[in-house]
Specification:
three-stranded antiparallel β-sheet, homodimer, DNA-binding, alpha+beta, 224 residues, Jelly Rolls, five-stranded antiparallel β-sheet
Chain lengths: 224, 224
Amino acid sequence: MKCDCDFCSLKTIFFNTINPNELENYCNAKIQRAYKAKENIIKQNDSIQEFIYLKEGLVKLYRDTPAGNQIISIGKPLDFVSLLSVFADEKYSYSVSAIKDSVVCVMNLNDVKKLILENGPFALRIITVVNKATDRILFDYLDISQKRLYSRVANVIIKFSELSQNLSFEMPISRKEMAQLVGMSIENVIRTISDLRKDNIIKVYGKDIEILDFEKLKHIRDIS
Amino acid sequence: MKCDCDFCSLKTIFFNTINPNELENYCNAKIQRAYKAKENIIKQNDSIQEFIYLKEGLVKLYRDTPAGNQIISIGKPLDFVSLLSVFADEKYSYSVSAIKDSVVCVMNLNDVKKLILENGPFALRIITVVNKATDRILFDYLDISQKRLYSRVANVIIKFSELSQNLSFEMPISRKEMAQLVGMSIENVIRTISDLRKDNIIKVYGKDIEILDFEKLKHIRDIS
DNA sequence: AATTTCTTATGATAATTGTCATTGATTGAC
DNA sequence: GTCAATCAATGACAATTATCATAAGAAATT
């Protein structure tokens, strides 16, 4: 039976860092779990026992704060779900839930740690990948924190358009979640979307969005 | 001659992960560099060749952005300076400069990578430490992004008070840098400091600050 | 099918923050 | 020591964003 890690991120990490026989072992040790949209994958304060990455679907990483939910990042296939804190902390400091129906691959965290201890190339590879992912989240956040409402909303629209690889796409998150992602109030996010529509930069039917003037939208994202 | 890593962060990482003889080798391979306040340690876009941590002094990590400098983090003794991107990128995406006179310890990055490849316990240790530090920066940022002007300024004052371990201390950074650190305009940061002074919560003589009502200051930091 | 709840939407208004202008103090360069 | 540049401070005003109120439509529940 062929190991189905072939199309997973894990394979990319393992690639050339572990011999095929061993790979088979670790690969078989992993578990897959499926989640329906809106289901919870990780809950804030859960103890960290597993190393999880997303095989299919779309997830959100978010924190429960006094000011409401704060979305830290959107996880795409091949992204790590247990990204931050995995090796740093005892407990998750954020929650993860499925935006679309999703399938995750799960490895026992101790197995991963054992691999790091025993397999140098793997260790170097995983530190690189985890570092890169965390960096991207941090620098994205630093970027938008300097931007204003319009720019932030334009940014989100472009990101999801790129994700779907289409100028016409269905926004997978609600307006409220868009607001939690850009760190602005729902009302102002909705108002911005309406304004972009009135200026014929985008077309909007509920969650269906079509970018009519990509250049102008990019311009709005980049200035201010 | 005794290796003077004894009081360095490196020692903590190496501790129990590498045998004393080898430690001596790596320790001797490292270089120390001294910087005067305001001198540049790392410049944005420099190629990443070294692994650097702070032995003495105080530094700031910051980005040069169209909207001006953005301070990402304040580095204290035993903190890593080449923290973000070290294993992830080719170039630094941020600059580091000395706030106070500082001494850094420098190891060749390839030596560190070699250690990761050859020494499992070291690899696991470094992945944990780097991860934890990056996490702290990200979550601090997520926290303040939900706070308002007053709360952010109170937060900075408390942080530097804690750093000096004294309610009366000298603010090591300028008002402008405080503004760049909290992500608000200089004028509003100054106004907030003035208001805190008028309310008898702090005493201010230029950079000398004394916290008069710590509880009230903490309260301001925590709400809103 | 009816009811409740959530989402999207918009206007009015208030709160928050930024910008511009000005001034005195401090610092750095020469 | 003098001059220029930067820093700290404050007021006036403008821009930006949040909050509250309201309402129609969609989705979930009964």
